[in-house]
User: Which sequence fits this backbone?
C-alpha cells in the first residue's frame, strides 16, 4: 500500500502523543509543540538526506498553516504555495493540504486546491490517531502527490518553470 | 440618424430584453399565510394537504412550524433543499462555502447562469422564488475551521422559527472532515441529524439517522460503505478524484427527504440506515447501536443519558429496530448464510452488503508504519519552536 521509500521516511518522523484539537484550550498548546518538534525533525531528516522539500509555519493559534513546497524535475526547481487549516476535528481527521496555485489545473484536486489523496491515506491516518501529525500528512500525502502530479503537470505545459525573481532582491 | 422617438422605442425594447435576461418576468408566486387544502389550480399546497385527507399524515400543516439545517448545498443538498422548499418547510438554514461551477451541471438544481455565485446565495434565490413562504438563512463558510465551527453550533441551536434549536440537521457534505465536524456539534448539542452520502464512484449511497446516545454516531465506527461489487483494484482512479451522477444523488436526496418528512411529521418508519447500490439495485437497511467505546466523549455521555431514560421508550425503539433487519432478509438478497458467526468487531452488527471502509486495531500501541519514537517533551517554548522552524 505505501511504498518502501515513504515507509522509511515515515518511520523516522517522531510520533505525537497528545490527542488534542484546536478546541481543547488546555492541551492544544502541548499538541502544537509536538507538531513543531516532529516537523523540525522531519525537515532536518530531509536536509540530511539532501531531500529538503518544504517549509511551513503557522499563525499564533496553530490553526492556520502556510508555507512553500517544491519539487525538482529535470534539474529545475518548481515551487508552490502551500496552505491548510487545522479542522476542529483534528487529529481524528487529517488536515486537508492545499496548493491554491494549482487549483483548476489538475483533476487530482478538490475545490480550493485541496489535494486528492489515495485510498490508503485515510485508513492509515485513522489507524494512527493521535500519533500522526502534520509532518506525517506531509510525508504520506503531499510528498507522493507532488512526485506523481508535478511531472505530469510540467509535461502538459500547465506548470512552467519560473526564474526566482522575487527572492533575488 | 435616429430621432428621439426611435431611440425611446429602442430603450423600451432593450428594457424588455433586460427583464427577460434577469428572469424577473412572468407570474410571481405570492406568499400564503395558511396552508389550504382547497383543490384549485392556484393552490401550491393542495396535493400536499391531500396527504391528510388520505390518512397518510395527520397534521401536514405542522411543517410550516419546522426548521431544517442543510449542511452542504451540492448535488445532494441542493435537491434536498428544493424538495423541502416545495413541501413548504417553515425554515431552511443553508451552509456551504463553495461556488457554483459549470462542472456542477451534471447534477440537478443549479443552472449555468449561476456559475460564479456562492452556492448558498444561488440556492436561496431559486428556492425563495419557488416558495416565498419558506424562511431561508444562508451561511457561506467552511464549518470545519475553529472560528466558523462555533458559529455553526450557535446557529443550529438558535435558528428555529421560535429561536430554539433546529428540528433536524441534514448532512449533505462530500467529505469526512465535515461529517465529523457535524457529528461533533450534534453530539455536543444533543441534536438529531441525518448523515447522507454518495460514493466517489457515484454508484452507491446511503442515509443514516443519528439520534445522539440512541443510535450509532458517525464516530462510533469507521465509515460504512455499501458493497459496490466492484473490485477496488480494478477501480481506475487515474486523473480523477470523484465521479458523480444526477441519478444517484437525486435518489439519495429523495431517501433523505422522505425519511426527514416521516420523522418530522410522524408517519411511517424512519430508517436508521438505508443503503443503495446502483449496480445491483440493492437497498440494505439496518438499525445501528452506538459503540460504548466511541471515541467521542459526548457520544458516550449521551449513551449514559439514554440508558437512564424510562424503559418504556426503549421498548418501542427495540421494536422499530428489528423491523428493517427482517424486511431485508425477506428479499433473499443476502449471499451469506444467516447463521454465519458474527465478526468480532465490537457490537457493530452490519447487514449483508454493508461494510466498514477500513478497520481500526483495538490495540493501537504499535502503529503500523512508524517506529521513529515519540516526541520527547521539549525544553523549548512553543514560540522558540516556531522560531526554530521559521529559521530553518
Assistant:
Amino acid at each position: 500500500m505505501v511504498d518502501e521509500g515513504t515507509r522509511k521516511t515515515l518511520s523516522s518522523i517522531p510520533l505525537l502523543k497528545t490527542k488534542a484539537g484546536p478546541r481543547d484550550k488546555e492541551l492544544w498548546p502541548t499538541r502544537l509543540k509536538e507538531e513543531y518538534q516532529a516537523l523540525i525533525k522531519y525537515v532536518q531528516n530531509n536536509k540530511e538526506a539532501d531531500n529538503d522539500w518544504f517549509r511551513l509555519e503557522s499563525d499564533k493559534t496553530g490553526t492556520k498553516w502556510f508555507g512553500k513546497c517544491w519539487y525538482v524535475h529535470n534539474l529545475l526547481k518548481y515551487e508552490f504555495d502551500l496552505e491548510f487549516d487545522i479542522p476542529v476535528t483534528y487529529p481524528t481527521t487529517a488536515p486537508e493540504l492545499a496548493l491554491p496555485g494549482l487549483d483548476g489545473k489538475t483533476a487530482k484536486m478538490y475545490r480550493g486546491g485541496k489535494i486528492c489523496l489515495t485510498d490508503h491515506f485515510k485508513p492509515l491516518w485513522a489507524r494512527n490517531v493521535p500519533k500522526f501529525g502534520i509532518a506525517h500528512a506531509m510525508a504520506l500525502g503531499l510528498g507522493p502527490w507532488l512526485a506523481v502530479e508535478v511531472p505530469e503537470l510540467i509535461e502538459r505545459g500547465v506548470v512552467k518553470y519560473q526564474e526566482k525573481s522575487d527572492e533575488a532582491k | 440618424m435616429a430621432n428621439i422617438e426611435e431611440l425611446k422605442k429602442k430603450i423600451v425594447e432593450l428594457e424588455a430584453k433586460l427583464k427577460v435576461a434577469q428572469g424577473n418576468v412572468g407570474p410571481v408566486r405570492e406568499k400564503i399565510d395558511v396552508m389550504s387544502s382547497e383543490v384549485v389550480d392556484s393552490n401550491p399546497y393542495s396535493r400536499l394537504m391531500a396527504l391528510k385527507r388520505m390518512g397518510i399524515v395527520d397534521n401536514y400543516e405542522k411543517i410550516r412550524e419546522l426548521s431544517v439545517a442543510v449542511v452542504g448545498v451540492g448535488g445532494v443538498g441542493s435537491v434536498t433543499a428544493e424538495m423541502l422548499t416545495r413541501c413548504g418547510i417553515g425554515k431552511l438554514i443553508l451552509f456551504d462555502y463553495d461556488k457554483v461551477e459549470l462542472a456542477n451541471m451534471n447534477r440537478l438544481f443549479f443552472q449555468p447562469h449561476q456559475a460564479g455565485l456562492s452556492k448558498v446565495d444561488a440556492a436561496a434565490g431559486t428556492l425563495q422564488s419557488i416558495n416565498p413562504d419558506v424562511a431561508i438563512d444562508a451561511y457561506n463558510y467552511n464549518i470545519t475551521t475553529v472560528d466558523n465551527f462555533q458559529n455553526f453550533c450557535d446557529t443550529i441551536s438558535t435558528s428555529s422559527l421560535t429561536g430554539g434549536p433546529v428540528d433536524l440537521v441534514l448532512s449533505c457534505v462530500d467529505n469526512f472532515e465535515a461529517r465529523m465536524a457535524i457529528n461533533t456539534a450534534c453530539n455536543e448539542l444533543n441534536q438529531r441529524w441525518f448523515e447522507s452520502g454518495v460514493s466517489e464512484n457515484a454508484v452507491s449511497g446511503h442515509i443514516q439517522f443519528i439520534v445522539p446516545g440512541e443510535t450509532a454516531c458517525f464516530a462510533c465506527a469507521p465509515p460504512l460503505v455499501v458493497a459496490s461489487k466492484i473490485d477496488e483494484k480494478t477501480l481506475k482512479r487515474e486523473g480523477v478524484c470523484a465521479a458523480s451522477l444526477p441519478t444517484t444523488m437525486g435518489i439519495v436526496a429523495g431517501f433523505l427527504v422522505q425519511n426527514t418528512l416521516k420523522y418530522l411529521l410522524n408517519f411511517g418508519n424512519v430508517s436508521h440506515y438505508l443503503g443503495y447500490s446502483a449496480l445491483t439495485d440493492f437497498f440494505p437497511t439496518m438499525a445501528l447501536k452506538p459503540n460504548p467505546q466511541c471515541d467521542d466523549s459526548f457520544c458516550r455521555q449521551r449513551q449514559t443519558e439514554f440508558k437512564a431514560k424510562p424503559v418504556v421508550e426503549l421498548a418501542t425503539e427495540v421494536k422499530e429496530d428489528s423491523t428493517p433487519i427482517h424486511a431485508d432478509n425477506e428479499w433473499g438478497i443476502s449471499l451469506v448464510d444467516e447463521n454465519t458467526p458474527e465478526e468480532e468487531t465490537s457490537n457493530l452488527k452490519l447487514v449483508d452488503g454493508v461494510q466498514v471502509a477500513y478497520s481500526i486495531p483495538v490495540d493501537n500501541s504499535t502503529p503500523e508504519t512508524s517506529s521513529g519514537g515519540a516526541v520527547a517533551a521539549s525544553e523549548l517554548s512553543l514560540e522558540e519552536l516556531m522560531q526554530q522552524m521559521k529559521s530553518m
About this structure: The CA atoms of residues 98 and 114 of chain A lie 4 Å apart. The longest strand of chain A covers residues 64-73. The mean pLDDT of chain A is 90. Chain A touches chain B through 58 residues (CB under 8 Å).
